[in-house]
Amino acid sequence: MPRQVPIPDDLTKPFWDAINERRLVVQSCTDCGTLQYPPRPECQDCGSGNLGWKETNGRGKVSGYIVIHDSRMKVWWAEQPYNVAVVQLEEDPTINFFSNLPGTPVDDVPVGASVEVMFEEVAPGKLVHDWRVLS
Amino acid sequence: MVSPYYRSIYRMDEGLGVWEHRGKVAVVGVGHTPIDRRWDERPETSLGAYSMIAAQKAMDDAGISLDDIDGVVSCPRANIPEWSRPELPPPYNTADGVSKVTAEWLITNMGLNNVKFIDNTPDSLGGNISWALNFAAQAVGDGKAEVVLVRYTMGNFSGRYSQAGSNSEEEASGGGQWTGPWGWGAAGTPYAYLMGEYCRKYGSNPDRMAPFVVNARRNGRMFPDGYYYQHPEEALTVEDYLASRWIAKPLRIHDCDRPVQGGACYIVTTAERAKDMKQPPVYFLNHCVNKFDSRSSVETLDEVEGWMDSLQKKIYEGSGLTPRDIDVYNPYDGFTHFTQYYLEAMQWHGVKRGEAHDFYAGDISVEGPHPLLPSGGNNGTGRTRCAIYTDCIQQLRGQAGERQIRLKAETALGGETTPGSSAWTVFGKNPD
Q1: Chain A contact for B304, CB < 8 A?
Q2: CB atoms < 10 A from the CB of A33, how many?
């Protein structure tokens, strides 16, 4: 996939360091236990700034998808049309991720299917998380 | 995080009761700019120059002059990048007047010498004309100014919309870290995703959007200040819609509004001053804002329906009206896919959750019993975001021409833009 390479910042560096180690983590509020992704400076439920990281079991479910035929993103023009699915995290279905579901044909996405996380190298030593359908 | 100051002024919260200035503030003037598909890079057709044209028209409509204006509220942002503007002579030699238009630019270049109150809607709020109008209404009600000029335009430079900047890069930073690597970057993506959830939950399919879009375009061709009235094309048919190309399937190109260069100005004043002006006043009965963050990467249907429940409470609580009381309904259609959430939330004409597509299949023409979006919205008039408001005002004045709904038109509701970030206004022909 023609992925943009993520540029971590102070907040997100721990996240991308974990991804580079093939671990999918989400933020975890020390005060109220809320999990969140994408990472934020504060807990979206209680406002606390005491946020740590929790490793997930890397399993999810496809909650829906679109097929992009006319992308605004230059690096994807040669690829389109392409799937972008939405994956709910099994451990907290209110957390969702985008996914190109590598291996799944375009516009033939099994909504409701179980998926597991996978990692693709986008630059030397830099990985990006994605998901594949479990057969 | 929105500051308490803005939360309060924009009435973002539930439980505020009836709006304290209900019926005491009115719109008394409307003026639109010319409207072009793209800017031709001349000073005369810039957003600043166009704003001055619209401001003059609005003042003429109200029967007032430059010296009567004591307040200016502008939403400066125009949704276009600043770096691509050409070199032009003053006063078009900076971004202000070209890529955006501030209250100060308008005041200086029109010669508004009696202005004591100014506001520029912050970019961070994601505002547009609806926010500026609501802010002006609150300011007039609060006594901060008496005759306020409200301004908004959207721009369209050369090149395809939204492809510059981070979308053209090979790296993903900031918020783009969570979208860019998977190519989540096309027009209307969240709403394309939500349509899937909606159709599965309620048993429908996206092809059933066709009559809504055909109707919006039809109404837009009856809106003289709109793009399709001034640049006629063949009428869009259901077959045209269904054959049109995908942008982000299930969102089609005809589900997207057409970027244009143009907008409008409005004059807002007290109910008392409105009595002396040329037009029948159109009173503000309520205003409010929906401002929510999605829980995770993209909002889900459950989240959106929750946001809609909040919006409905705020609109009816603040105005003291019920769904049965809204005569003219102009919910935003910038992407046609979210209008159904607004329709179902307000239960306009009894439409409940999951019934929007059935409603679209019936008679929703302006001549009929369920005249939805009589303005034609953005889809029917081009992406100025102003037709919704102008139509509410014209319907209540009895000046909507061919678009005048055949039912009574004593109250109107309009709002924009998205389920998680939108400002809404209730208008009335009568102050009580």
Answers
A1: no
A2: 11
